[in-house]
Every structure is written in C-alpha cells, then in structure tokens.
Amino acid sequence: MTPSDVKATLSFSDGSPEMQLPIYKGSVGPDVIDIRKLYAQTGKFTYDPGFLSTASCASSITYIDGDKGELLYRGYPIEQLAQNCDYMETCYLLLNGELPNVTERAAFTRLVTRHTMVNEQMQFFLRGFRRDAHPMAIMTGLVGALSAFYHDSTDINNPTHREISAIRLIAKMPTLAAYSYRHRKGHPYIHPDNDLSYAENFMNMLWRMTEPKYVASPVIARALDILFILHADHEQNCSTSTMRIIGSAEADPYLAMAGAAAALAGPLHGGANEEALRMLDEIGSVANIPAYIKRVKAGEIKLMGFGHRVYKNYDPRARIIKEVADQVFEVTGRNNRIDIALELERIALSDEYFVKRKLYPNVDFYSGIIYQAMGFGPEMFTVLFAIPRTVGWLAQWNELMADAEQKISRPRQIYLGEDHRKVTTHSKAADAIAVKHKEVVTAG
Ligand code: ACO
Hints:
By secondary structure, the protein is mostly helical. It contains 19 helices and six strands. The protein has a three-stranded antiparallel beta sheet. The longest helix has 27 residues, at 159-185. The protein is globular. The chain starts with 6 loop residues before the first strand and ends with a helix. Bound molecules: acetyl coenzyme *A. Acetyl coenzyme *A binds at residues 50, 237, 268-270, 272, 296, 302-309, 357, 359, 362-364.
C-alpha cells in the first residue's frame, strides 16, 4: 500500500509531541489512517471495542457501501452475480479474483464434486451427538474434526495443501450439513451423487428416501443456489474476522473454520435467521405487530433480522431474497409468515425509531421464511448459511496467508483493575504443599 500525500496529525492537549500518521486510499470507500506506529511513538493505544472504526486488514475480495446498500464480490454487484452466475462460478471468483471461463468452470466444478464424500468414520462422531443436539453445534464439531482426518495436508505454508483444504471444505460442507440434518431425524445418511449440481446434490443428501435416484425441483435448486451466492462473503464480519484471527496464529484452516462457524452461530450474526423466524412465530399475526414494535422501541427486545453494522440502507441481499421467496412459494405454497414480515418491515421503515437509527431488514430477515417453506426447521437455518460462507472464509484466509503485513492478532486493552498490591494472608494449603515438596526433595 502506498500512503497518500495527505497525512493525519495527532496532537495532545498535555503538550506531548504531535504525531504524523500516514493515510491510505482504498479503490473505493473511506480512507484509512495507519496507526501501527502509534504505541512505539507515543506509548498510547487506541480504544475501539467492536472495531467500529478499525480496519484490521487490506482486502481485495468484497466491498460493501453501507450507505448506498451496495455489495460487490471482486467488483461485481451481487444482483448481477445472482442473476447471471451460479454458486460454483461465485466460489471460483471469490477464490481466484476472476469469473471462470467455460473450461475453468468445468474443471473447478469437477474438482469440488470429487471431494464431496467424507470419511465414513465421521459417522462415529455423529453417533456421539444427542439426537436433539443443535445442528449448528454438530456442524461446528464436525468441521473441527476434519483437521484430525487431514493432518497430512494441513501445512499452511504449502500452496497445494492450502488449495486442497479449500476444495475439501467447500465440497464437504453440504455433506456434513445433510448428515447433521438427518442425524436429528434419525434417517440413514445419503452419499453424494456426482451427477448432480452442488445444490441438487445437497438436496439429494437431505431429502432422498428410498427412491434410487433423487430428482431435484429445478426451482428449489436454483433458489438454494442463489441463496448460496448471496451468503458467500461479506468482508470482515464477526465470523470472517474470527477465521482471520485464528488463522493469524497459523492454526490449520479446518480448525480456523470451526471457530468461524462458532462465531456465525451467534444470534447477533448468522444465528439471527433462526431468531427472526422464531420472532415471526411469537408475533403470530399482523394484528400483534404494533404491540411488538412498542416493546422493541422500549428497548425490551430487538427486532431480529433488522440492523447492521455496515448497512445503513436496505441490505441488497434482502431485496433479492424477497424475489426468490415468490418463486419458491409457487412450488411449496405460500409461507404466511411473509405477510407478518412484510407488514413488520413496512411499519419499521416508516417509524421514527428505526428511520433515525437507519435500521433496515438484513439478509437474515427473509431467508428463514424461504428455508421454512422448503421444509427446514429453524435450527437448520444457520447451517444453511455456513455452507456458502465457507468459500468467503477460505478466500479471506488465503488472502491473510499471502499478506506479508499481517501478524498474529493480539489486541491491547485499557486495564482498569487493581494496581500492584501485597498478599497479606497466608494459606495452610500452601504450607502443606511446601512440606510435601521438601519431603520429595529430601527423599530423593
Ligand atoms: N432492533 C431494535 N433496535 C436495534 C436493532 C434491532 N434489531 N439493531 C440496532 N438497534 C438499535 C440499538 O439499540 C441502538 O440504539 P441506541 O442508539 O438507542 O442505543 C442503535 O440501533 C445502534 O445499534 P448498535 O447495537 O449500536 O449497532 P451495532 O452495529 O453494534 O449492531 C447488529 C449491529 C448486531 C446487527 C444489531 O443491529 C442487531 O443486534 N440486530 C439484530 C440481530 C441481527 O439481525 N443480526 C444479523 C446481522 S446480519 C449478519 O450478521 C449475517
């Protein structure tokens, strides 16, 4: 990165010397002030819980303009990708920086397809989970367990190991997700079918029963594929930052991704889709919305699926999901929670509380309604998010591995605890240990 001609000057009211800070310009988006030398030169840290004003890395993968409500993968608007591409092309784009040509696309898809099976021993892990275990907890455990299966190819400094790990994770996530789904139902696990597309094969592993060949509804398969595109990456969100933080300690990508998946499970992040659906159920009918909004405004509860750290405008993914919902409903029948959601959105978008705080529906507000119409229970929603986010986590992890400026992540703190003080009591247990120690030393 080359600093711009403009510099920031930091001055202190106590007469300490001023400091000049370099400024970098991104290709689009806000300028960034480089504070790396701040502590060395001033002995002071910055304070920014939740990273409200802190860029932790330079990235060329995804760009969000929160004010405009715009999302780009490698420069391409999400709407265009959702309309013209499939999830495999999107994966290739995120990992490699360019959309694939026909040959590259076929080769990449073949590679992913050939890695969809998981070691049969994985089923022993599954058996250890209770039937009522949350599928996201199961998934997180299974992803971490992959590290134990592939310890021969987890050298993060080896580009071939990095590439094969990424392919394995993208390929195996639907298989693990389907296993966690069927474990809950007590249904036998279904092996992948390599004749099918990524989304169709996932449907096969979820829903095939006794029929010899699963035939996927093209509408549902395309809807899932679009949902996968929309969820593929979202720059430095909580789970991606977790992936990078764990990766910065040079843990292997399977372990780092287990951490990312755990972060995604949180209700303020990917877990919000499950919570949003439960909220719609709790509201129950359009007539109950005003009372619910009243509780939100009183600060008693949050409107789940609303608000975002970056978007201060409509989340473009939510807009696309609304369109996909109509297509899905033509096959599955209408999920009448959509009526509650639309009315909730209408009221929220005209209410001063939400307008003032720029709170708009995010990706999680409508996705659950579609997933439920497809037949998923709310507990599966975050798993469905984790499948496509895998490629984003890995593209960001690859970028971290190639970034010479990155160091192990290690934030500082402002310490507000006690200053130095003396221990004034003396415990008998400490004496007993000292006597035991003396006896051992004397004995020999
Ligand atoms: N409902 C009601 N009020 C809200 C909501 C909400 N969903 N979100 C934010 N606010 C209010 C806050 O109370 C705060 O009000 P105040 O200024 O009076 O204190 C103000 O809006 C700003 O909110 P913050 O919490 O400071 O915003 P932050 O950027 O820290 O949080 C977050 C963003 C976590 C997404 C938040 O909006 C939220 O909890 N939303 C609900 C959960 C959700 O949908 N998460 C999914 C996000 S998308 C994703 O991760 C895939």
